[in-house]
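Worked Example 4.2. Consider the chain below.
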Amino acid sequence: DTPLPPDSRPHNPFDQHSSSKTMGRKPDIIVDPTAWIVENSFVEFLTCGTVQIKFMCMLGYTFYHGYKVFSKLPADTAPSYKFVNHFMACTGGGILVPIFINLVPVPLVSDLYPLAIVSSFLIHHYFPVVRQVLGMSPIFKAFVIVLYEVTRAYVVVALTSAAGNAIPASTFSFPIFGPIICGTIAGCGGAFLPLNKGLDPIKSGLQTPMLTALIGAAAFHIFMNTWLSEGVVDAKAKCHIHMAVFFICISEISAFGLTVDARAAARSKKA
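Applying the procedure from the previous section yields the following structure tokens:
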């Protein structure tokens, strides 16, 4: 008799070679080499994972904005004027971007923002010594900057994602410039409010928050919508963490002038 081809032979359950291919096969286990990014105790803080952490970071965010607003205004300025300026500085991006994409502005959706703004305003107004401590203590200032940048990263991620979902694709398979512009405004929109400032905030060039917001929004949007994120487990969370760390590092460097003078470094090497 002519032997049967290997593929057409009847299955022999006692044949170890044939059964090993069909029986007892375990499902493939996905190994995530970057799981440590989201499996640590800092993830909830960097991504505002709980309401308590979110409010704490919002309080630092609004307090740091108040530090900038109150430091620029004369002491005899009306409290109402200070409060409105403070409010718009804190929520500028959260007001403009939702209007662009036909959504409700963030201060009207989340009660935590107005609560944090009012709390920080009362601290600045009735306890100005706290603001003076922020200006004198590098440790306190560094801590507040961390809270400020964690919140800013959260806002940029949230509004960039919302814009990406709301804006339809046109030339390419996904919208490119619209979400990036919205994400950039989300991270620095307060600098342009009230609108009578015009383009004065960028008259001397882009400020550090504007530049980091642009880079962060562009990197996040392109990474999440291209092949770069294919196969990445928890891609959005990992990208969010990277953005928060990037914002914190750049802001700390800018706030404390941690730059290297190339000429001084060259002279020290020669010496």
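The mean pLDDT is 86. The radius of gyration is 26 Å. Compare this with Example 4.1 before moving on.
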